[in-house]
Amino acid sequence: MTSEAPLPPIESPLQPIEQALETLLRDAMLLGHESVDVIDAADRVLAQDVIATLDIPPFDNSAMDGYALHHDDAGQRLPIMERIAAGDAPSRLQRGYCARIFTGGALPAGADCVVMQEKVVLDDGHAVIPPDVPAGDNVRRQGRDVTRGHVLLPAGTRLDAAALGHLAGQGITQVNVIRRPRVALLSTGDEIVDPGQALAPGQIYNSNRPMLVNLLTHFGAEVVLTRSVPDSLASTQECLAEAASIADVVISTGGVSVGEEDHVKAALESLGELDLWRLAIRPGKPLALGRLPTGEDNRSARFIGLPGNPVSCFVGAWLFLRPLIGALLGCPSLKDLPRLWATSAFSTSTGPRQHYMRVQLNFTPDGMTAEAFSDQNSGVLSSCINADALAVIPPHSQIVRGDRIECMWLKLF
């Protein structure tokens, strides 16, 4: 009797990216909020609506240097009643008079328009006003920008420079923002060493860690742990457990393929839950999504296992880390990357996996074109340095120059 050779394990089918994102964002909950000084709130996300308590502008004021008057007095030679600079409290303007006024100066009661100084002729203490000046001309009306009692900024707003200025314009010094997601970043692989150390034969420097720390920080997360994980199941389990105890999101790079030294999948399954593994995308097929216990009731840490190849890691960060951080922050502008259409300046074809090609966007008189980096291999990180977008090429597609293609704009803010 002859023994039969064991059958190779049956690999699970590749999952589409839409299913991966649905799995990743399922039950994503906001992380609570904290109060911070407005001066320190740059790029933070509002936890609740901010209601305006002041009209902006707070009073009718002049939009330029000129002369304030009632529009019915236009076309006349008017005596100049007073001079109004920004910050002055003007008197009531009598009919048949005008007032010298400067940009930002409060419009006096009795006036309803401003004539710019270039259109006025001065004559012995009088101003000769041109005819046909409409009411409201060159006047910034009270509440034109912001009306008291209305929503100044809605919850979920990421506080950029203009939003911070909006808050300061209301005299606000403290603001409630969503707590930043805490992220633990683990690097697997005995061949990976940190810059600054000497390279032994077969070793390479860790390019993924500084790249991801930078992206995660820009996405709005706080990196609370970085660690190198030895290539053993026990070490991987130990590091995952420690990371989950202090972080909302645990990210690993490498170790999610099917090699004998790839222990992340097995360690995750032994400690928590593996929700999804292996995607129908290129680059980035060996990607794992799951959850890890934290030791707290009703809370688990999200786990994302990114491939070790630097381009796969870079693309995976934009496709998965940014949406997850955006969901945990309740920030729609982070959760969804802007999509746009461009004319392809390259030709390519795809198999069963959706391809995310690194492209530069060029603006021409005929519209926007997308130029692909010549080498799209997942180990060629230089393809990401000047990339403006990821060109989304569907499975089983044939793209030729001149085709319209969808691009995901790699916009940090």
From TrEMBL:
Pathway: Cofactor biosynthesis; molybdopterin biosynthesis
GO BP of this protein: Mo-molybdopterin cofactor biosynthetic process
Entry-linked InterPro entries: MoaB/Mog-like_dom_sf, MoaB/Mog_dom, MoCF_biosynth_CS, MoeA-like, MoeA_C_domain_IV, MoeA_C_domain_IV_sf, MoeA_linker/N, MoeA_linker/N_sf
Swiss-Prot/TrEMBL keywords: Magnesium, Metal-binding, Molybdenum, Molybdenum cofactor biosynthesis, Transferase
Single GO molecular function: molybdopterin molybdotransferase activity
Reactions the enzyme catalyzes: adenylyl-molybdopterin + molybdate = Mo-molybdopterin + AMP + H(+)
Any Pfam family hit: MoCF_biosynth
Protein known as: Molybdopterin molybdenumtransferase
Source lineage: Bacteria, Pseudomonadati, Pseudomonadota, Gammaproteobacteria, Oceanospirillales
